[in-house]
C-alpha cells in the first residue's frame, strides 16, 4: 500500500505509507501525543490531506475529477472578452469563442494555403451579378458597374443549438415570454430556463443580422464601413434610430424593436433559403467580410428573448450568451473564471477536410479526413492572467496548448545555426511547435504632417525631409530589435504586406532598395556612411542643423509609458544616436496617444496593424490618403497621414481588381512609392509560436480564421498517462515541515514545563518560615 | 447605543459624499467620456458618431454637475454625477462601461473573495495569537530574541515573494496543490490551501510582533503580578488573565477589517486566479472601466465606516468600562 502509482494518490496508499513510515521510525507515539495536545490543528491538517489524498487524480490537477479522461480540450484566456455579440465583437480575444458558435455564410479552408474561402452554411459560393445605374446586367470588368448583387443559397436542414428562446408551449407559442420584470424574477441565470428548443436556420436570420449591423444602438464597429457599400444601410440606420426613439418613449428603454418590421433596400430574403445583398459599385473585398462573424445569423426569437424585462439586470443578454448554429455552444460564461463550449447536438453534417498538401499528409493532418466535426466534446477555457501559472500548467499537462512568454522562451525554444526549434526538454516531452507569420505589421513611422520629418512645404524641403527619413530608416536596425526584444520571433518588413498575402515578394525583388543591398543572396543593411550622407543632404550634417548648428531633436510618441527608462527605449535612443540625432521619447497613456494621432500632433510614433482579411488592400490602405487620421477625424487607419496622389490613384485601381499579374504590377509600383518616401522608418511582421502537448492532433496555424477548434482532437488516454507521470506528488517536504515543527515544539514544551516547575520551586524556596506557618 | 449608531451613520453620509466627489472628480480629470468611449469601442473603424452614441447610451453626454438646459428638478439630477455617483448611495451600482450589471457581478464575486479571506483571517489571527503567547511565555530569553528576529525577517519579505515562492515549491516542484485557479463548491478547497497558507505565513511576522507587544504590556501589570503571587500557573496566567485583557486592543484592530474581507485581496486573487472582488477591481483599473472602480471605491468606503462603527460597538461588549454615548 505504500506505492504511489504514477502520481495518482489513493486514500489507502497515503495513509498506509504514512503509518508505515511512522511505525518504522517509532514516532507514532510522539505524534499521537502532540496531536492530542494540538488536536484542532492536527484534525484540520489531517482533514485537508485526506480530502486531497482520497482523490484519484493528481493533487495539483486544476480540473474537476469528474472530467478525467473526457474528450475535452483545455485552453486558457488572459483577457476577459467584452463583447460576444457578433454585431459588436471585433477582437481576436472574442473571436476565439464566438467563431466556434456563429456561422457566417463563408469560411476559410482549414488546410489550404494561400488562404481560400469556401461555402460555410451555403450550398455554393455566392453568385455575384453586376449591373449599371439603369439596372442592366454588365460584365465583371465593366467600367459601368453601379451595383453588385450577391445571391446566397443556404443549405436546408441546418438547426440552431438548443436554447430557451426556441422553447414552445403546447399552443406553439414561445414558452418564455414575460410582460414585466416581476414575471422573470425567478430566472436568475440562463440555467434556470429548463425548457429548450431549436429551429431551422433560414435566410431571414441573415437578413435580420445585417439589419442589426445597421442599428445604431448596437454600435457595430463595421457599420460606418459597410454603410459605404450596402445599399440602403445608411437610410436603415436613420429609420431604426427614429423608430426606436418613438418606441422607447412609449415602452421604455429596454423595449424590443422588431427589425423584421423595417426593411433595408439592399438586403432581402428571396425565399426560405435564399437571400441577396446589394452593394454600391464593385467591392471585391466584400467576400472576406462574409467570412466574419458580423454576418452570422441571429434569429429574431433570440433577440426578443434577451430583450425581455428584467433579464438584462441579471446579465442575461445576447452579448454574454451567444446562440448559433456552429459546432459548439457556450454552456458556461463566467469571464471571471471559466468559459465552456460544448458540442452542439444539432450541428449540421460537416466533415474534416480530405484535401491537403504533402506536408499536411506527412504531419498527420489528414488522418481524420472525412470524420464528422467537431472532434471534441467540450472545450474549457480558464482565465489565466499570469504567465507563470499558465506555463507551469502546460508543462504539467493540464493545458493542451500554450503560447510562449518571454520568460519561458529559453526553456521552450533553442536557436541554432539550423534555425529555431524546440529545446531538448520540449522534444523529450513530445511537445510540437506551431509557427506562423502573423498577418500584421508593427512599425515605427513618421507623421507626414510634421514640418521636420513630414511632407510639407515646398519641393525642396519635402526632398530634404525624405532624405532625413531614409537616413533614419537605414540606421534603425529592426533585425537587432527583433533578436533582442522579441526572441527572434519576427521578420523585417520590406513593405506593409506580410508573407502569405498576394503582393508579397521575397528575395532580391522584394527588398527595400533604399535601406538594403542584396549581398551574397541576402539583404544587407546600407552603411552608416550612406545614412550620414543622406542626413547631410537633408540639411543636418553630423546631426546638427546646417545653418543654426543646433542639434536635431526628434520626438517619439509611444503609448508604453516612461521616458527613456525601459531597455527598449534606451535601445531606440542608441539607434538615433548613430546619426547623432537626439531622440526624445514621450511616453503617454494609450488614450492620450490616440488623441495625438487623431490630431496629428506626433512626429514619430510606433503602432501596429493586424489584418482583417488576407488581401493586399487591407495593408496598403494604411497609407491611402483618404484614410488619413486627421482628415477622417480619427476614424481612418492611415496614422501617418501620408497623401500621395499617384499612390492614391493606384490604390483606387488596385482595390477593385481580382488577384492577377496586372494587380501584382500595380502593387509593386505602390510599394516602390512607399519605399522611396520612407513613410515607415521601419516595420516588422511578428511570428506566432504555439506549443501543443503530444496528445493534441490536427493543429495547423491559421492566420485569419479562428473557427478552427472543430478540427482539433486530443488523445485523452495519452494525456491521462502523461499527467500522472509528470505530477507525482513529492511528499518528503511535508515530513520535513512536520519534523521541524516537532523539533521546535518538543523542546519548547519541555522548556515550558521546566519553567513552570522552576517558578513553583522558586516560590517555595523564597517563602519565609513565618509565611509557611501562616 | 442606538442613538450613537444613528449619529455615526449620519456622520458617515458627508464622508461618503466627499469620497464620492473626490473619486468622481479624479476619474473625470484623468479620463474624459470621449476617451472612455475610445477604450471601449476599440481601435478599428471608430467614428465620431459611434463615440457620441456610446456616450449617449451610457449617459456620458450630459453635463458633469449642473444641467442648465433642464428645469429645477433636472438641474442637478440630469447630470453625470447624479446618475453615476449619487445613485451609489442607494447601492444602485448601475452597469459597467462594457454593459454588465455591476451589482450582479459583485454578488457573484464576493463569495470567492470570502472563501480566501475568511480562513486566512481566522487562521491568521489564531496563529498570530498562539505564536505571540508562546513568545511572551519565553520573554527576555534567547528564544524571544530569535523569534523577534525571525518576525522582522518575515515582515521584511515582499508579499509577491511569498506567492511566487509558494507557487514554485508547493505547486510546481512538489506537485502538492494546483498552482492557480478556482472551482466552485468543495473543489475550491484544493485551490484555497496554498493562498491561505501564504496569507497566514505572510502575516505572521507583523501580527506576532504586534500581539506580543500588547500581551507584554498586560504581562507587566499589577493584576498579573498578583495572580502569579497567588501561585497561579503560568498557563493560567497567560490564558485566563493576559489573553482576555490583551484581546481588547486586538479586537479594535481586527473588527475594523471584518467588513472589508468582502473586498478581497488584490494580490492573492490576481496571482492565484481567484475570481473575487480584488481581481475584479484590478481588472477594472486595467480596463479603465471607471463605473466599476467608482462602485468598488464607494463600497470599500462604506465597509470601512461600517468596520469602525462595529469596532466601537465591540468595545462595549468586551470592556464593561466603555459606554457609547
From TrEMBL, chain B:
Keyword Acyltransferase in record? no
Membrane topology according to the record: Multi-pass membrane protein
Q: Does the keyword Cell membrane apply?
A: yes
Q: Where is the ABC transmembrane type-1 domain?
A: 110-314
SUPFAM superfamilies linked to this entry:
MetI-like (SSF161098)
Keywords for the protein's UniProt record, in alphabetical order: Cell membrane, Membrane, Transmembrane, Transmembrane helix, Transport
* Compartment annotation: Cell membrane
The regions listed as transmembrane in this protein's record are 9-30, 116-138, 145-169, 189-211, 247-272, 292-318
Question: Family assignment?
Answer: Belongs to the binding-protein-dependent transport system permease family.
Give the protein's recorded name: ABC transporter permease
Amino acid at each position: 500500500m505504500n506505492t504511489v502509482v504514477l502520481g495518482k494518490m489513493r486514500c489507502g496508499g497515503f495513509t498506509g505509507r504514512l503509518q508505515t513510515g511512522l511505525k518504522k521510525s517509532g514516532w507514532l507515539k510522539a505524534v499521537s501525543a502532540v496531536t492530542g495536545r494540538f488536536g484542532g490543528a492536527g484534525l484540520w491538517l489531517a482533514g485537508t490531506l485526506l480530502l486531497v489524498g482520497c482523490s484519484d487524480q493528481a493533487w495539483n490537477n486544476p480540473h474537476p475529477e469528474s472530467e478525467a479522461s473526457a474528450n475535452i480540450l483545455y485552453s486558457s484566456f488572459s483577457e476577459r472578452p467584452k463583447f460576444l455579440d457578433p454585431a459588436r465583437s471585433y477582437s481576436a480575444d472574442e473571436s476565439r469563442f464566438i467563431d466556434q458558435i456563429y456561422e457566417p455564410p463563408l469560411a476559410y479552408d482549414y488546410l489550404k494555403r494561400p488562404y481560400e474561402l469556401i461555402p460555410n452554411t451555403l450550398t455554393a459560393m455566392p453568385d455575384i451579378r453586376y449591373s449599371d445605374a439603369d439596372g442592366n446586367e454588365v460584365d465583371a470588368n465593366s467600367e459601368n458597374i453601379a451595383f453588385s448583387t450577391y445571391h446566397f443559397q443556404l443549405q436546408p436542414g441546418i438547426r440552431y443549438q438548443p436554447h430557451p428562446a426556441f422553447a414552445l408551449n403546447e399552443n406553439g407559442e414561445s414558452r418564455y415570454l414575460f410582460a414585466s420584470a416581476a414575471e422573470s424574477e425567478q430566472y436568475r441565470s440562463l440555467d434556470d430556463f429548463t425548457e429548450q428548443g431549436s429551429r431551422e436556420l433560414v435566410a431571414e436570420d441573415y437578413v435580420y443580422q445585417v439589419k442589426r449591423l445597421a442599428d445604431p444602438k448596437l454600435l457595430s464597429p463595421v457599420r460606418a464601413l459597410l454603410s459605404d457599400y450596402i445599399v440602403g444601410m445608411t437610410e436603415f440606420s436613420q429609420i431604426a434610430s427614429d423608430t426606436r426613439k418613438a418606441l422607447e418613449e412609449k415602452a421604455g428603454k429596454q423595449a424590443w424593436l422588431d427589425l423584421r418590421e423595417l426593411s433595408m433596400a439592399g438586403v432581402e430574403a428571396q425565399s426560405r433559403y435564399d437571400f441577396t445583398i446589394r452593394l454600391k459599385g464593385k467591392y471585391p473585398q466584400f467576400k472576406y467580410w462574409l467570412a466574419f462573424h458580423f454576418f452570422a445569423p441571429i434569429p429574431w426569437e433570440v433577440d426578443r428573448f434577451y430583450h425581455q424585462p428584467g433579464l438584462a439586470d441579471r446579465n442575461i443578454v445576447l452579448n454574454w450568451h451567444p446562440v448559433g448554429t456552429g459546432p459548439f455552444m457556450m454552456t458556461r460564461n463566467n469571464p471571471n473564471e471559466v468559459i465552456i463550449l460544448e458540442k452542439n447536438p444539432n450541428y449540421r453534417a460537416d466533415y474534416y477536410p480530405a484535401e491537403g498538401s504533402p506536408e499536411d499528409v506527412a504531419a498527420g493532418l489528414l488522418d481524420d479526413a472525412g470524420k464528422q466535426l467537431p472532434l471534441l466534446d467540450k472545450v474549457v477555457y480558464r482565465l489565466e492572467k499570469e504567465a507563470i501559472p499558465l506555463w507551469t500548467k502546460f508543462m504539467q499537462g493540464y493545458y493542451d496548448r500554450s503560447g510562449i512568454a518571454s520568460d519561458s522562451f529559453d526553456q521552450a525554444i533553442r536557436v541554432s545555426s539550423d534555425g529555431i526549434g524546440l529545446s531538448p526538454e520540449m522534444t523529450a516531452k513530445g511537445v510540437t511547435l506551431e509557427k506562423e507569420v502573423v498577418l500584421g505589421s508593427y512599425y515605427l513611422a513618421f507623421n507626414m504632417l510634421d514640418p521636420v520629418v513630414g511632407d510639407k512645404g515646398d519641393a525642396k524641403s519635402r526632398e530634404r525631409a525624405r532624405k532625413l527619413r531614409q537616413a533614419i530608416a537605414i540606421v534603425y536596425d529592426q533585425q537587432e530589435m527583433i533578436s533582442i526584444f522579441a526572441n527572434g520571433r519576427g521578420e523585417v518588413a520590406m513593405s506593409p504586406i506580410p508573407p502569405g498575402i498576394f503582393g508579397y515578394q521575397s528575395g532580391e525583388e522584394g527588398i527595400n532598395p533604399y535601406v538594403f543591398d542584396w549581398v551574397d543572396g541576402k539583404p544587407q543593411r546600407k552603411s552608416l556612411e550612406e545614412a550620414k550622407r543622406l542626413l547631410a543632404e537633408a540639411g543636418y550634417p553630423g546631426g546638427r542643423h546646417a545653418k543654426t548648428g543646433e542639434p536635431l531633436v526628434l520626438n517619439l510618441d509611444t503609448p508604453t509609458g516612461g521616458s527613456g527608462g525601459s531597455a527598449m527605449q534606451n535601445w531606440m535612443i542608441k539607434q538615433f544616436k548613430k546619426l547623432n540625432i537626439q531622440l526624445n521619447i514621450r511616453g503617454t497613456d494609450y488614450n492620450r496617444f490616440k488623441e495625438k494621432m487623431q490630431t496629428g500632433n506626433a512626429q514619430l510614433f510606433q503602432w501596429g496593424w493586424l489584418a482583417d482579411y488576407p488581401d493586399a488592400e487591407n495593408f496598403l490602405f494604411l497609407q491611402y490618403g483618404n484614410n488619413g487620421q486627421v482628415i477622417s477625424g480619427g476614424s481612418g487607419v492611415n496614422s501617418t497621414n501620408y497623401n500621395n496622389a499617384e499612390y492614391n490613384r493606384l490604390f483606387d485601381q488596385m482595390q477593385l481588381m481580382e488577384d492577377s499579374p496586372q494587380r501584382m504590377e500595380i502593387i509593386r509600383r505602390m510599394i516602390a512609392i512607399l519605399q522611396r518616401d520612407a513613410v515607415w522608418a521601419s516595420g516588422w511582421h511578428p511570428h506566432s509560436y504555439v506549443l501543443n502537448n503530444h496528445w493534441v492532433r490536427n493543429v495547423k496555424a491559421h492566420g485569419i480564421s479562428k473557427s478552427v477548434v472543430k478540427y482539433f482532437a486530443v488523445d485523452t488516454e495519452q494525456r491521462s498517462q502523461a499527467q500522472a507521470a509528470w505530477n507525482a506528488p513529492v511528499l518528503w517536504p511535508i515530513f520535513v515541515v512536520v519534523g521541524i515543527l516537532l523539533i521546535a515544539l518538543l523542546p519548547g514544551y519541555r522548556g515550558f514545563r521546566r519553567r513552570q516547575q522552576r517558578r513553583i520551586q522558586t516560590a517555595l524556596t523564597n517563602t519565609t518560615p513565618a509565611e509557611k506557618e501562616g | 447605543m442606538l442613538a450613537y449608531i444613528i449619529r455615526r451613520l449620519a456622520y458617515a453620509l458627508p464622508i461618503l459624499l466627499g469620497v464620492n466627489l473626490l473619486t468622481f472628480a479624479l476619474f473625470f480629470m484623468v479620463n474624459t467620456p470621449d476617451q472612455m468611449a475610445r477604450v471601449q469601442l476599440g481601435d478599428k473603424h471608430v467614428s465620431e458618431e459611434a463615440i457620441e452614441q456610446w456616450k449617449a447610451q451610457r449617459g456620458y453626454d450630459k453635463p458633469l454637475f449642473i444641467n442648465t438646459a433642464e428645469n429645477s428638478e433636472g438641474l442637478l439630477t440630469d447630470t453625470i454625477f447624479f446618475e453615476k455617483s449619487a445613485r451609489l448611495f442607494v447601492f444602485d451600482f448601475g452597469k459597467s462601461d462594457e454593459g454588465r450589471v455591476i451589482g450582479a457581478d459583485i454578488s457573484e464575486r464576493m463569495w470567492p473573495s470570502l472563501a480566501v479571506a475568511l480562513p486566512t483571517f481566522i487562521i491568521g489571527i489564531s496563529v498570530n495569537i498562539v505564536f505571540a503567547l508562546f513568545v511572551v511565555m519565553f520573554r527576555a530569553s534567547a528564544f524571544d530574541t530569535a523569534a523577534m528576529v525571525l518576525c522582522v525577517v518575515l515582515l521584511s519579505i515582499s508579499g509577491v515573494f511569498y506567492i511566487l515562492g509558494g507557487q514554485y515549491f508547493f505547486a510546481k516542484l512538489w506537485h502538492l496543490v494546483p498552482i492557480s485557479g478556482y472551482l466552485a463548491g468543495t473543489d475550491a478547497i484544493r485551490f484555497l490551501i496554498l493562498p491561505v497558507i501564504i496569507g497566514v505565513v505572510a502575516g505572521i511576522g507583523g501580527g506576532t510582533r504586534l500581539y506580543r507587544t500588547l500581551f507584554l504590556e498586560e504581562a507587566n501589570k499589577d493584576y498579573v503580578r498578583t495572580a502569579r503571587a497567588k501561585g497561579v500557573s503560568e498557563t493560567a496566567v497567560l490564558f485566563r488573565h493576559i489573553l482576555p485583557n490583551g484581546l481588547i486592543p486586538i479586537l479594535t484592530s481586527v473588527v475594523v477589517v471584518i467588513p472589508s474581507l468582502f473586498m478581497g485581496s488584490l494580490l492573492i486573487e490576481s496571482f492565484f486566479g481567484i475570481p473575487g472582488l480584488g481581481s475584479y477591481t484590478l481588472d477594472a483599473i486595467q480596463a479603465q472601466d471607471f463605473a466599476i472602480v467608482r462602485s468598488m471605491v464607494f463600497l470599500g468606503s462604506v465597509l470601512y465606516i461600517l468596520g469602525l462603527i462595529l469596532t466601537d460597538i465591540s468595545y462595549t461588549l468586551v470592556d464593561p468600562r466603555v459606554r457609547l454615548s
